């Protein structure tokens, strides 16, 4: 089987809420949907979910890299040979989100060609559904408490509170939510917002409210700081932004700079390298949470297949992008209900893209 066409389409989807994190605020999601067609008529879909406030890629850069560099390299290649697809793509440095979209589409094609779900290609599944939490952006204490309560009522298994701009406000917000919801697991995510001294001070106070985990308290490059917090605090420290590539995983393990890995399949360039990170984490005894770049339907399906196939998924995951959108681009949405995302079962990614929706939300650059 050979790839004959790679089409990258930029779309902009409306979110149903403003997202405000340490790093920026946004209310639309720019996504790139990638359709790869083969000489056997089998096609697959991928998605890139660049959030410029978080990653070094944009919708524009993803489309440009795919159209100008990746597509010409990959036309004529066998999409089922993921190892070689990734080798070829190494000619272009970085741009992992663009590569992830190609990776998802190749897995989708491979599954369809073999008549099996993508999780089978990843080794099979440990679970049929994935526990997810819901996130609360940085906002007034009253609004944060109200929102936390609403999510708990909706059945989410945990609450993730965004922190990292004002330590004092953060401690008060977490305290107020804990008072209202005495039993819900709370994770806090600073998105690299604190300096080490701020982190030590704020988080040692915050720990009193019984936290499930602390996500990326200090800048991604500060592995010494991460390691110090792992030693000082009793709450486990989760590496998110510090963990992009398979090489980052090695550094985090060497520095003892993370108690938990947050694998986002977009960051290392797709499912193939993400599986390698999961293997390293398993060998090092580091449990996982599977994050997301709040992908729309296709990326969410890919995340669900991945979360099904990894062993030590011990913490709530973030595979919940579609809950934050006013609309999606699938014919049938990925099932997300009462705090769980269900792993699709059809061949490939197990979802079908609605081409009319892609046309409707298309952005011309
Ligand atoms: Mg995070």
Structure notes:
The chain is built from 12 helices and 13 strands. The chain has 365 residues and is an alpha/beta fold. The protein folds into 2 domains: 3-115, Enolase-like, N-terminal domain (Enolase-like, domain 1, 2-Layer Sandwich), CATH 3.30.390; 120-342, TIM Barrel. α9 links the parallel β9 (237-239) and β10. α6 (167-180) runs parallel beside α7. The protein is globular. The mean pLDDT is 96. The structure holds magnesium ion. Magnesium ion (MG) is lined by residues 189, 191, 215-216, 240. Magnesium ion binds at residues 189, 191, 215-216, 240.
The CATH architecture term of the largest domain is Alpha-Beta Barrel
- Shape descriptor: globular
Structural class: alpha/beta
Record field, number of beta strands: 13
Percent range for β-strand residues = 15-25%
The CATH class of the largest domain: Alpha Beta
Present as ligands are: magnesium ion
Whole-number count of domains:
2
Helical amount: 25-40%
Number of helices: 12
Brief overview:
Keywords: Isomerase, Metal-binding. α5 links the parallel β5 and β6.
Topology:
Blueprint: E1 3-21, E2 24-38, E3 43-48, H1 59-74, H2 82-89, H3 96-114, H4 118-121, E4 129-131, E5 134-136, H5 141-154, E6 159-162, H6 167-180, E7 186-189, H7 196-206, E8 213-215, H8 223-232, E9 237-239, H9 246-255, E10 260-263, H10 271-284, E11 288-290, H11 297-309, E12 336-337, E13 340-342, H12 355-361
Parallel strand pairs: 5-6, 6-7, 7-8, 8-9, 9-10, 10-11
Antiparallel strand pairs: 1-2, 2-3, 4-13, 12-13
The structure holds magnesium ion (MG).
Residues 189, 191, 215-216, 240 line the site of magnesium ion (MG).
């Amino acid at each position: 089987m050979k790839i004959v066409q790679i089409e990258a389409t930029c779309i902009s989807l409306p979110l149903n809420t403003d997202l405000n994190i340490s790093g920026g605020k946004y209310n639309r999601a720019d996504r790139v949907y990638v359709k790869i067609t083969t000489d056997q008529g089998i096609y697959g879909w991928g998605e890139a979910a660049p959030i410029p406030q978080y990653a070094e890629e944009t919708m524009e850069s993803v489309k440009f890299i795919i159209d100008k560099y990746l597509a010409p390299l990959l036309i004529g290649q066998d999409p089922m040979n993921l190892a070689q697809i990734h080798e070829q793509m190494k000619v272009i440095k970085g741009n992992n989100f663009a590569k992830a979209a190609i990776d998802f589409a190749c897995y989708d094609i491979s599954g369809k060609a073999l008549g099996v779900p993508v999780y089978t290609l990843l080794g099979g599944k440990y679970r049929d559904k994935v526990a997810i939490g819901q996130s609360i952006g940085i906002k007034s204490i009253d609004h944060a408490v109200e929102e936390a309560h609403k999510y708990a009522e909706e059945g989410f298994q945990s609450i993730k509170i965004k922190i990292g701009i004002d330590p004092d406000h953060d401690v008060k917000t977490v305290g107020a939510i804990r008072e209202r919801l005495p039993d819900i697991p709370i994770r806090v995510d600073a998105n690299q917002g604190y300096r080490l001294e701020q982190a030590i001070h704020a988080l040692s106070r915050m720990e009193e409210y019984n936290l499930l985990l602390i996500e990326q308290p200090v800048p991604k490059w500060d592995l010494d700081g991460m390691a110090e917090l792992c030693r000082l605090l009793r709450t486990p420290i989760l590496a998110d932004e510090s963990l992009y590539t398979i090489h980052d995983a090695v550094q985090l393990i060497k520095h003892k700079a993370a108690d938990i890995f947050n694998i986002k399949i977009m960051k290392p360039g797709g499912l193939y390298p993400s599986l390698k990170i999961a293997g390293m984490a398993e060998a090092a005894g580091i449990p996982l949470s599977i994050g997301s770049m709040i992908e729309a339907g296709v990326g969410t399906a890919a995340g669900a297949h991945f979360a099904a196939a990894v062993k030590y998924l011990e913490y709530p995951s973030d595979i919940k992008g579609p809950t934050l959108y006013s609309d999606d681009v699938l014919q049938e949405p990925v099932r997300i209900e009462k705090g769980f995302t269900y792993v699709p079962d059809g061949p490939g990614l197990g979802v079908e893209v609605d081409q009319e929706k892609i046309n409707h939300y298309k952005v011309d650059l």
